[in-house]
């Protein structure tokens, strides 16, 4: 099936129907651009995060993990440049009061009602709140708009406790908040989202090489996630697109039904961040390189991915409809490494000891895998329900099971069934889900 707008509508409806993503506070009419992850959604999200964490920390001796607080000292955001420059130009329609990002409208008139638009003014995207009981200017703090700063302010702590030497990295997964003017496209751009960021600290002069290295590593990660290669590409930032701190930047883009859009940003941030935090905090953050016998402020190569956006990409990429025996089969072709449920386990019928055997299989498998028992409805219907939920395998106990301790294993994508010994199920699922 082609990549169309209808795909998005169908995906939003499938997400709701199957318990991937619900509109937030739905019984109150919802809240714009906020979403809740349901039973399957939270499993998928956790598995995506695990897939990232495994590649970015567990498999690497040169990257440490971190989980910094969302609320940070307000000076952090002055040092980072967010107070002064984390803004979007905004225009309001004087007639219908609709608000637009200035770069999204052409001319002086409202695209909806034709009313006159105001002059553009800068709007800061950071959410403000107050710390403590007094709501005055002195108690203003921000919800972090990126997780990166939590890493920079902990650079010295992590370096000392882990005894890492440059080059090394710090990785973090966590919530970020932006008061986006134009959120939308389902969970693509929201006001509350999760980032998976890694900051790699390097010696000045080696930054170009490391930048190239991380660019390759990160696209390879998306390939390993099972995404279609032809829908992934790099976009190099031109001089006018580069952030104030960046020397070079590439986005990894994905071809969504609404066009090629950023999935992840890879930046060469130079020594901007640590220099600024040294200046604003008054604490020495220079690094002494024992091998080179020199002191310097490290350069940073950043890889910054969105967890929600990756999840949306997996749903878009995996969504498929095909004709099978005169019926439309909806199937979510998620990689077994991240599929919320790895296997459905079914008794063919509700008698002859089949449910008992199926339950026993579930009890064994659930220690290691996400499995789901289902005995209701015809077997074909049960397969279809799992196809739509993205479950890669369905295990069925039938009349032959009693005779030779085997079950059928049906693959979601090819719909082929093979007979497998019950004793071999764990190994089969282990091989399919290995990170
Ligand atoms: N520390 C660098 C940084 O935050 P960014 O390009 O602004 O860079 C990185 O954000 C990633 O975070 C994006 O590629 C995207 O995946 C995700 N992201 C950013 N804003 C988002 C939003 N409003 N909703 C969902 N994801 C978002």
Annotate the secondary structure layout.
Layout: H1 5-18, E1 21-23, E2 35-37, H2 39-58, E3 63-66, H3 74-79, H4 82-85, E4 87-92, E5 99-101, E6 121-124, E7 128-130, E8 140-142, H5 148-152, H6 155-162, E9 168-177, E10 192-202, H7 207-224, E11 232-236, E12 248-256, E13 259-268, H8 272-281, E14 287-289, E15 294-296, E16 299-306, H9 307-318, E17 319-324, E18 327-332, E19 343-347, H10 354-365, E20 371-373, H11 379-389, E21 393-397, H12 399-404, E22 406-411, E23 417-421, H13 425-433
Helix pairs in contact: 2-9
User: How many beta-strand runs?
Assistant: 23
Shape, principal axes of CA atoms = globular
Q: How many helical stretches?
A: 13
What is the alpha-carbon Rg in Å? 25 Å
What separation lies between the terminal Cα atoms? Answer: 29 Å
- Helix percentage range: 25-40%
Roughly what fraction of the amino acids lie in strands?
25-35%
List the bound ligands. Answer: glycyl-adenosine-5'-phosphate
Let me know the largest β-sheet: 7 strands, mixed
Unreliable parts = none
Spatial arrangement of strands, main beta sheet: 3-9-10-16-13-12-11
Strand-pairing-aware structural class: alpha+beta
Mean pLDDT: 96
